[in-house]
Design brief:
294 residues, alpha/beta, TIM Barrel, 8 strands, globular
Amino acid sequence: MTNTKFIGTGVAIVTPLNRDRRIDKTSLIRLINYIIKGGVEYVVVLGTTGESVTLTKEEKRTVVSIVLETVNKRVPVVLGLGGNNTQVLIESLNTVPDFKYLDAILSVSPYYNKPNQRGIYEHYKAVAKASTLPVILYNVPGRTGSNIAAETTLKLARDFKNIIGIKEASGNIEQAMKIIKYRPKNFLVISGDDTLTLPMIACGADGVISVVANAFPKDFSEMTRQVLAGNIKQAQQLHYKLIDITEQLFADGNPAGIKAALEILGICKSTMRLPLVEVNIDTRKKLEELISKY
């Protein structure tokens, strides 16, 4: 199985909402075309940034359908599909109408119930056996409350051919390097942190699933390509061009920050669904100032 389609920049797209908090289909289409025109390698739908946990099943189907129709095979599409009830997750693998048109699933480690490493392994073993699509693990301890240890990732990578990579968002570069050093051939290590993408790729990672690239797809995807090509100086220039904006995008929570930036850029509204709220006034003003200079 070749996994080269997921090398480079994937974008964890937001789910645009109207002021009444319903899905904004027009803005979703605009966003997809904008990021593809910006040169990204693939799209991730219904991830954390897409507010998937506050969408109904019907809304999720609608979003996936719009994304697939708009993308129209121009780039691969990855579906965020995780959960902390393994059986329910496995059953959902058989109920996604457009499953066969997707390229992979991104599956977050179980949250809240905090399984130990054996539990995490058994969870993903069950997912891998049930999925007809390639599986990308997603490690984000800051949200799940538990870390996928490097040893667990490596065991899963060796034991299941359809587990093709990990989105590593632990912020622990030492852990990422251990996975990179001992991974099987073609197993992808993908940055889950925009600010750490350059150093992680310099250490041997294969790309990023980005939040920032919703708003700045051209520069962020070019930065990723440059560092993948070994052109560190060129990558550094783009990294530091974006770094102040990146900091502000996460200052008041994700995806509130990136939605504020997208509204400033005229792509979609900054509307959020409770319990998430829009960024505070100070953050909004800083973003407006930084984007106007950008």
